[in-house]
What we know:
The structure holds two protein chains of two kinds.
Chain A lengths: L2 E3 L4 E5 L4 E3 L2 E3 L4 E8 L5 E7 L5 E3 L5 E5 L4 E6 L8 E9 L9 E2 L3 E6 L1
Parallel strand pairs in A: 2-12
Antiparallel strand pairs in A: 1-4, 3-9, 5-6, 5-10, 7-8, 8-9, 10-11, 10-12
Chain B lengths: L3 E4 L2 E4 L4 E8 L5 E7 L6 E7 L2 E5 L6 E7 L2 E7 L7 E8 L8 E2 L3 E5 L1
Parallel strand pairs in B: 2-11
Antiparallel strand pairs in B: 1-3, 3-8, 4-5, 4-9, 5-6, 7-8, 9-10, 9-11
Amino acid sequence: xxxxxxxxxxxxxxxxxxxxxxxxxxxxxxxxxxxxxxxxxxxxxxxxxxxxxxxxxxxxxxxxxxxxxxxxxxxxxxxxxxxxxxxxxxxxxxxxxxxxxxxxxxxxxxxxxxxx
Amino acid sequence: xxxxxxxxxxxxxxxxxxxxxxxxxxxxxxxxxxxxxxxxxxxxxxxxxxxxxxxxxxxxxxxxxxxxxxxxxxxxxxxxxxxxxxxxxxxxxxxxxxxxxxxxxxxxxxxxx
Lengths: 116, 113
């Protein structure tokens, strides 16, 4: 079975400060990991993914995430937060084991609020 | 524009009504999904279609009936729903390969009276 945990329901940061949104996962074997963002009244929008290779992956809007296999984590980061980054963020995992596995598991989401 | 279009965006229906949600993807993907998003709950995968064949049904009540006539269109037929079925229903598509992200529509906000 595969699962994802986002331990924080809410993260508050000041504009210009670095932000981190945490994600840990559980999967049999190696994972594919994803981050999505959801703005009000919209669907989920893909930000970045880890498949293999460099543990630090860069994505859209200046976001990046670091894959840490020993800690089974994939935290989302941004060096300098913008007010427009305020949204709901979802981490997701899929097991590599099955080539055509369409079962992606999502975390419960973390609401990021960036204050001016 | 995400390439995945859902209609209607909002739907209010009584418990005895029958309605359908529609999803269309313009991305050439071969897998399509229905998710239910309720407040303060994780995203729930409902159905998966791969090359028009249903490959997953996550114990969804029979009052929800999916239909996938081709790889570009996906429907969710609704009948005799319950108030707890009020939620945002999201459609997504992917190219079926597990290392590719899913692309989501903007959802249908469903309210059951």
